[in-house]
Amino acid sequence: MYLIVFLVAAAVSLLATPLVRRLAMALGVLDRPEARKMHRKAMPLLGGIAVALGFAAGCLLAYSLPGHRAPETPLFGLAIGALLMVGLGVYDDARGADARLKLSVQALAALVVIASGSRIGILTNPFGGTWDLGALSVPASVLWIVGITNAMNLIDGLDGLAAGIGAI
Predict the structure, then answer these.
(1) Max Cα–Cα distance, the chain, nearest Å
(2) What own/partner pairs with CB < 8 Å and gap ≥ 24 does 9-15 have?
(3) Tell me: the pLDDT tens digits for 13-50?
(4) How confident is the model at residue 135, as a pLDDT?
(5) Whole-angstrom Cα distance, residue 78 to residue 113?
(6) Element (H, E) at 19
(7) What is the C-alpha to C-alpha distance for residues 35 and 39, in angstroms, rounded to an integer?
(8) Model confidence, pTM
(9) How is the chain split among helix, strand and coil, in percent rounded to 5?
(10) CB 37 within 8 Å of CB 157
(11) Residue ranges of the alpha helices (H) in 28-72?
């Protein structure tokens, strides 16, 4: 069943990519060549929209399958946090966002996810045992979500690299 969900999500992303590419070209939302960039011609941005559409399609399909219940609060919080991140990405691609705005929206998205009930509460020690984070679970969760978001953003300089790593 989950293979079908994955294949639908991948298909929606693949089908949406040329449409989003055309939209970016029509709107002029392009990454223009510079000395520090690898590409020699303007490249369309907004690719995160295609990825988000595929992810949303996969989630909707998974919750429509027999035996699955309606999304619970943590998943709703994750969806809201993801929408905030996608919105920030679209804004950043179209207009450019400074570091303060990016960090603020990322932290807000992380706090929405945490407030809905998802957080890192326990760390597993690879040599045995666990560490209960207790009161540190909220800051650890915010740092993790914001850190992973920025790690993906930093590797997004080459076409398809972030999408490929995300798919893996």
Answers:
(1) 55
(2) 9/54, 9/55, 9/57, 9/58, 9/61, 10/54, 10/167, 11/54, 12/53, 12/54, 12/57, 12/58, 13/50, 13/51, 13/53, 13/54, 13/55, 14/54
(3) 999 999 999 999 999 999 888 776 677 888 888 988 99
(4) 93
(5) 5
(6) helix 2-27
(7) 10
(8) 0.82
(9) 70, 5, 25
(10) yes
(11) 47-64
